[in-house]
Specification:
This protein is of the alpha/beta class. The chain has 3 domains: about 90 residues, Ubiquitin-like (UB roll) (Roll), CATH 3.10.20; about 80 residues, Alpha-Beta Plaits, CATH 3.30.70.20; about 375 residues, Rossmann fold (3-Layer(aba) Sandwich). Helix content is about 35%, strand content about 15%. The chain contains 20 helices and 19 strands. The strands form 6 sheets. A 5-stranded mixed sheet has the order 2-1-7-5-6. Strand 18, helix 17 and strand 19 form a beta-alpha-beta unit. The longest helix is centred in the middle third of the chain and has 20 residues. The N and C termini lie far apart (about 55 Å).
């Protein structure tokens, strides 16, 4: 036997597992899934719910399997009468203080607490409520809504925010029956360093944290004949929406998605991938300018709004390293309400732009005061008053919100015949598709930057070293006579490592990509729940599959992008481009919270 492996017996079955394996993970080796509410593999083993208990031979007490590692020759029993009774009682105690409003909860039928209650056989509420206070909802955030009354104190959200994102916007506050998850001085998420990433909502087992919904506003706009309502879809939606509509995990549903959006009533169905290609054009040329001494290096991508809030808050002295490019979402809003509005001869004041995003932070981004460049572009042309000011993007829907809207109209998504995006803002390349994956923005930018710097076609356009599923990966590339070192990071905890290198003057990189969420946008806070590493792997594979099947895979070869520059923008980094497609950042202060 390998010295790093140990033998254990689980329900009479002998199995070898690595030393240090938690009991809950060891049980999976023999096909047993132990129920748990406070456990997140590799992140949280809080042990508060008590639902994961098992019997261990020679132990007087039941053992919480999420907290204890196996030992040599351990004998474990997972479903003795004592275990089953304890799990049921512990769950009943949790339900005693939980609002039993399942039919009106956004997590109804996709709630871990609800599912476990059914699994362990809870059929009645035997225990009286002990929590006397009913807490108000926290609606202060533009992205998230918190309901402390639905919280079961599992600590998952706290651990994800602290351990993975290193933000610590929330914590356990209060004592005894007054314990709840809250922010500093209980001031609400908007008055905390929260980056709006939504990873807390993604791991919450109940409906205690959900996205701030814009479904009703969008339905109202779609029913208003005086408005032209257009929609843009982020790359990650095409591998998330199918899951949310009951198809297999990672299903690629691009064409069905387009048709479904038309059935909802959108006047035009466009693609955020169009402006992902546009982002690459601007960002690649900005990198080239910086290589010539134009601005600080390393340059860091700026597509992820949670990441932008993070660096503004915790590393304000480094915002000069950020690319000045807006995200594809915001570039789209600006282009749709200027270039497309002018081309279609539509009053921009009557155009409403709806984004379908995998990201709750996109709601925050759309509401930032800097994101109204289309209004400023039209202001003098149309003699608009400040009171008529409009944003570039009007509403942001998550993948989950779109799925709920499609279910509300009774659409049988599986039978929908596919169709194509509308022109001209629906044309995109493989370089835009891979924006969904961590490393994708970097890879797409390199596909363009290499050719722009050397004047010759790149020998290869897939960068396998940037596709590894690690928190930080790097590559050294020879471009012409220059060696360019690049790095890719996903999750804010990993971003912090790279920022500390810059802060200490030890960063060896020229170009850095940062994505807020694990594995990038495909793991965004607005994606279908659950969003495990295994599910994200399937989404990643589908994204790369769509890239490989795109007839054009380099952003600078997109014919609609070429036409946009020829007829409207002029050239990358032109004055019009800077007015509509670039922005500035706000230096914050983490200590003010």
């Amino acid at each position: 036997m390998d010295e790093k492996m140990i033998g254990v017996t689980i329900d009479g079955q002998k199995v070898e597992v690595p030393r240090g394996t938690k009991i809950i993970e060891a049980c999976k080796r023999v096909g047993i899934t132990i129920p748990a509410l406070c456990y997140l593999q590799g992140i949280s083993s809080y042990g508060s719910c008590g639902v994961c208990v098992v019997e261990v031979e020679n132990s007087r007490r039941l053992v919480r399997s999420c907290m204890h590692a196996v030992t040599e020759a351990m004998v474990i029993r997972t479903h003795t009468p004592r275990v089953l009774h304890a799990r049921k009682v512990n769950l009943e105690l949790l339900l005693a203080n939980h609002p039993l409003l399942c039919t009106s909860c956004e997590r109804n039928l996709n709630c871990e607490l609800q599912a476990l209650a059914h699994q362990v056989g809870v059929r009645e509420s035997r225990f009286p409520r002990t929590r006397v206070e009913s807490w108000p909802l926290d609606r202060s955030s533009p992205s998230l809504v918190r309901d402390p009354n639905a919280c079961i104190l599992c600590n998952r959200c706290v651990e994800v925010c602290e351990s993975m994102q290193t933000v610590s916007a929330i914590a356990m506050i209060g004592r005894g029956l007054n314990t709840k998850v809250g922010t500093f001085l209980d001031g609400g998420l908007a008055n905390s360093p929260c980056t709006n990433c939504g990873q807390c909502a993604l791991v919450c087992p109940t409906g205690a944290i959900v996205e701030r919904s814009s479904e009703e506003e969008v339905f109202a706009a779609l029913a208003d004949p005086s408005l032209t309502v257009v929609v843009q879809t982020a790359p990650a939606i095409r591998v998330g929406l199918g899951e949310a509509m009951g198809l297999e995990e990672g299903a690629l549903v691009t064409e069905q998605m387009v048709s479904a959006l038309r059935r909802l009533g959108f006047d035009r169905v466009f693609d955020t991938q169009f402006t992902a290609d546009l982002t690459i054009m601007e960002e690649a040329h900005e990198l080239i300018a910086r290589l010539g001494g134009g601005a600080p290096l390393p340059m860091i991508t700026s597509c992820s709004p949670g990441w932008i809030k993070f660096i503004e808050t915790f590393y304000p002295e480094q915002v000069g390293h950020l690319s000045s490019c807006k995200s594809p979402q915001q570039m789209f809003g600006a282009v749709a309400k200027t270039y497309w509005a002018e081309r279609a001869n539509i009053d921009p004041r009557t155009i409403k732009v709806v984004s379908i995003m995998p990201c709750t932070a996109k709601k925050y981004e759309a509401g930032r005061s800097e994101m109204d460049s289309s209004f400023n572009w039209w202001k003098e042309k149309m003699d608009l008053a400040d009171e008529e000011r409009f944003a570039d993007v009007d509403w942001v829907l998550t993948t989950r919100e779109l799925a709920r809207m499609l279910n509300r109209i009774g659409l049988d998504f599986a039978t929908v015949e596919g169709s194509q995006f509308d022109d001209p803002l629906g044309d995109s390349t493989g370089g835009a598709v891979i924006f969904a994956n961590s490393g994708g923005v970097m890879e797409a930018a390199l596909r363009t930057a290499v050719e722009a710097l050397t004047g010759t076609a790149a020998a290869h356009i897939e960068f396998s070293e940037l596709r590894e599923r690690t928190g930080i990966r790097e590559a050294a590339l020879t471009i012409g006579e220059q060696t360019v070192r690049v790095a890719v990071a996903n999750t804010l905890g990993n971003a912090r490592i790279l920022l500390d290198q810059i802060k200490s003057g030890e960063s060896p990189y020229t170009f850095i990509e940062v994505m807020t969420c694990p594995d990038g946008c495909i793991g965004g806070g607005g994606q279908p729940i659950p969003s495990t590493a295994e599910i994200r792997a399937k989404r990643i594979a589908s994204i790369y599959e769509e890239d490989r099947h795109k007839p054009i895979r380099k952003s600078h070869e997109n014919p609609s992008i070429k036409r946009l520059y020829e007829t409207f923008l002029g050239s990358p980094l032109s004055s019009t481009s800077h007015q509509l497609l670039h922005t500035h950042y706000t230096k914050g202060d983490a200590y003010r919270y």
